[in-house]
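sanity check this record:
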Amino acid sequence: MRVGSYDYKLFSRGDFSAFWALFTDNLVNLMVLAGICQFVFQMPAEIVYGRIVPGAAIAVLAGIAVYVLLAKRAAAQSGHDVTALPYGISTPVMFVYLFGVIGPIYWSTNDPVLAWQVGIGAGFIGGIVAALGAIAGPWLKKVTPRAGMLGTLCGIALVFIGTVPLATVFENPFIGFASMIIILWGLVGRFRLPFNIPAGLLALIIGTVVAILIGQSSVSLDGVGFYPPVPYFGDLVAGIQHLFANPELFLVLVPVQIYNFIETMNNVESAEAAGDHYPVATCQITDGAGTMIGALFGSPFPTTAYIGHPAYKRMGAHSGYVIGVGIVIPLAAFFGFLAFLSNLIPVAAAAPVLVFVALSLITNTAHAVKTEHMAAVTIAMMPHVSSFLVIKWGSLMGALGATGAEGLLPLGNPELTAALLQQGAHYEGHLALSQGAILTGLIWGAIVASVIDGKFKIAGGFAFAAFVMSSVGIVHSATLHWPEFGAVSLGYLIAAAFLIIYPIFHKEEADERETETAPGAALNPGE
């Protein structure tokens, strides 16, 4: 169909509800990063609300402008309404930048300004790495089974987007339950609310009102002002120079940006599974460019096409919901309203919206893949559970140290590892699975899906790729390194050899199994 032949309406009724869901998602991320930067890394409010937040808003605005144009183009090409890809700060990568780049600089120097400079330098370089994913992205999307790509997203959704916010709800049940029941009623159950009020908006209102009544929320104008976005060339150059002077930081930066462009690829696949087709290379370039723009204007944090497109499509959204976020978030950032909203809206009131996004993604995946591929989806989710455990074990050790516990052995200490194993906590195994969990989940999901389909060469190819990546530390290692052939990497090599060689000598068995599992094959009535 000729581009431009379809009259695509940017706004629909569904955009109003979708706006509040995406706005809440972005708002929570901004609230979290602002709080950590200000209170953990001791960055002055002038940097947090005057530079980082406006820079993040500029990045969001730039990316949304591109994704609206892509939505119009996709609608014209397909001849039907489409939902624009959601966009914002990548939640998992945000935490890696906070505690893997900014945190180590601050803890080693006690200089919050230098930590911010290195952060924006890392963001700019990371944006380049993410954009380079456009070179390999289309090919990876073509050869990777959908179950692998969507399964690893489901793992992120289950653990970090669903379980963590749900725990927040239970930490503040008066606030959280009040919002949660509205989300379940209006978004999960899809029942009508009074006056057709969007469920996301009503959940925020109800949760905030409850918080005010019980004294857990306050109205404060501290931080309200005018913070125009300004490019920080000098600080950016200083941060990049520090990065090259301390190249060990690239060992964190490069793998996480590989994750970021694969996350974009997976989210584009998620949209395609829901019926909306977008060019993966263009999306990866957009995410990389948005991250670079944000870094230039003061934000260290990478942006990406968000998880959750199927949820917004289910609401009937077009492009209006992302346009609304592209207007409201920058206005809130430039005039200091984020500080006001951070004081007013409790996290427990916003958390149920994230739970809904997780539920929608997992449910949509179950409908988007073949039933037999659910085994692949399930195994792709498992490394993220290990990632969650390792992160929380680290948090536990940090909490024990902060409360004055003495004589603590560090995680990874052989004696502690042996003691944990005796208690049924398989630290070494979970640590290996957690390192590069997004790639590990994708690889194992792809291997299992390919084996189920009898595509043994593809399965062997993914196992061999895992051998290469594990040998240089991209997965199952804390750092990049020269090739080392440990037990895990050699295990992948053996698996790859088996998957590629064994079917050659047992072709009859493979052909027989393929016949048995072919569509339409069934047992005779008498059998």
In short: The first helix runs from residue 14 to 39.
